[in-house]
Amino acid sequence: MAITLVTGAAGFIGSHLTEALAKSGRKVRAFVQADSRHLDYVKTLGVEIVYGDLFDKASLERAMEGVDEVYHLAAAVRPAGWFYSRNGLLAEMNRVNYEGTRNLAEAARGKVKLFLYFSSIAAAGVRPMMDETCDAKPETEYGWSKYNGEKYLLDLQKSEGYPVKVVRPGSVFGARHISMALIFKFFRFSFFPFFGPGNNTVPFTYVENLIDAVQLVAEKAPFGEAYFVTEDPVSMRAFFGGLAAAAGRRVSAFYVPVWLLYPWFALKEALELLFYMRFFPLRMDLRLDSIRVASGDWVCSSAKLRALGWKPRVSLEEALARTGRWYVENGLA
Predict the structure, then answer these.
(1) For a disulfide at 10, which of 39, 151, 171, 226, Cβ 3.0-4.6 Å?
(2) How do beta strands 191-195 and 252-256 pair?
(3) So what's the pLDDT on residue 126?
(4) pLDDT, average across residues 189-201
(5) Is residue 294 part of a domain?
């Protein structure tokens, strides 16, 4: 039986995808690092575990033996540190999300019938309405690095028929997303801060609906195409209020006036220019553009994906309930 390789298999989304692929009857090989967050859980799924990284040629060769499908999720998402040189974070993100992707694609060349790349809506940029025909305008180092990865692969498809398909998930939420624990810490104090009144819309995607979409793209989509995977727009206030209620918390929104933030962010960026460095408090990218992103509407059309036959199987209400329940049961809410 041919093997399906999942990189980043022990991450938040990767663990859900690995579970779904294993349940579908595939023989799955999980490509992981020893310190991967959900490795213990993935070990319970009965899949093959291969340790390595995208810059270890020998481990890539071991991982690719007998493989005919690759689902590439392994990525750098957040800054690893608080301080960087002016271009340091982009170099770090590009190393994993572009150069690492290139290494994996090279190892898979001539061996696989499918290379499904997990990009991000961040690769397209932030606008009130986007579809896949819009020019990409990334606004963050992460977005640029994911765009560089997908462009490399799509160019390969055009030049030599490389069997690549691309998905661009929205802001994904669900069980096992440990980074969301900070949100629930706010909920314990019965408030959540918004930049502005919180009426702006954000393209959220529930992880189980994402996995359904990915499997549909793998099965039905033509090669060389990219697909946004986002659900109906929901306001920040409605989303986080619903998430808090699902965890048994009542939240009073704490609105931070946008005008109050501009002087502080402007000062931060002026100091960064002066010292030719970047500062990421709590490993978060906080800058003037962050205010616009966090307070503005961000909508990605899923019409192209829906034309393949996709629609969210789990409603927003049920998705929030399942997510909140998982955090409560695991002592994180």
Answers:
(1) 39
(2) parallel
(3) 85
(4) 80
(5) no
